[in-house]
Write a structure and sequence with these properties.
42% helix, alpha/beta, 7-stranded mixed sheet, binds S-adenosylmethionine
């Protein structure tokens, strides 16, 4: 029964059954959707800017989804890109989308906490991922371990908001059987600091969430 499954399994189920629906958000031109989802494009832009500011970095994309960010960071100058996601349909779409990059783009189907991803990486992306993690500290620590000296983690995090918070709870947890989590600025500073990152930059462009860059060394 869905309700008795562990949180990661419920997240995997959601992004397995709704992979196409998520992917379509990037194409949706409806004004309402655009207005409700500015974060989708803001976080992609932060990834692109971070990659473009470095000399041919290696990129790990945790929870890469359908490769929507992958194609942009490869076009922005990433020397190599490795995407990992535990949703098979997401990886299938990413494989098709990134085919034109040949060996520069690699994809792994699996759970980030146990997948063999190699490394270290100059840029680690975690966009739209932490929303669904019951144990974010383990992910943050693994990202630190996989980050090269001088490397950076780029992440997005939802914050509780009086308007969007209850809507997201209703959509994801009560109707969608998918756990959802919120973050605070001080909580993020603590979590990334404890993982070992030396400098953590956080902005809150849309009030309903945070964009973060955590630097190693
Ligand atoms: C909201 S989507 C974001 C996809 C992509 N980063 C983007 O912004 O377009 C979150 C993705 O994280 C994946 N995911 C969640 N937990 C994961 C885990 N433990 N290991 C690998 N992938 C995971 C889901 O399958 C899903 O495809």
């Amino acid at each position: 029964m869905a309700g008795s499954l562990e949180a990661p399994q419920r997240v995997r189920n959601r992004f397995t059954t709704r992979a196409r629906e998520f992917d379509d958000l990037y194409e949706d031109e409806r004004l309402l959707v655009r207005l409700l989802r500015p974060g989708l494009f803001r976080r992609r832009q932060l990834a692109v800017d971070t990659v473009a500011a470095r000399q041919a970095p290696s990129v790990l994309d945790v929870g890469c989804g359908s490769g929507r960010i992958g194609e942009f960071v490869l076009d922005a100058g990433a020397a190599s890109y490795l995407g990992v996601d535990f949703s098979e349909p997401m990886i299938e779409m990413a494989t098709a989308r990134l085919e034109r990059f040949g060996q520069q783009a690699q994809l792994i189907t699996g759970d980030f906490l146990s997948a063999d991803v190699g490394g270290p990486f100059d840029v680690v992306l975690a966009l739209g991922l932490f929303d669904y993690l019951p144990d974010p500290e383990r992910f943050t620590q693994r990202m630190f371990d996989l980050c090269a000296e001088g490397g950076v983690v780029v992440g997005s995090f939802p914050a509780w908001s009086a308007v969007k918070g209850p809507i997201r709870k209703l959509r994801y947890e009560w109707l969608g059987d998918c756990p959802i989590f919120n973050y605070t600025r001080s909580g993020l500073e603590r979590m990334f600091g404890e993982a070992g990152f030396e400098r953590v930059e956080i902005t809150s462009p849309g009030r309903s969430g945070f964009l973060l860059r955590a630097h190693r060394g």
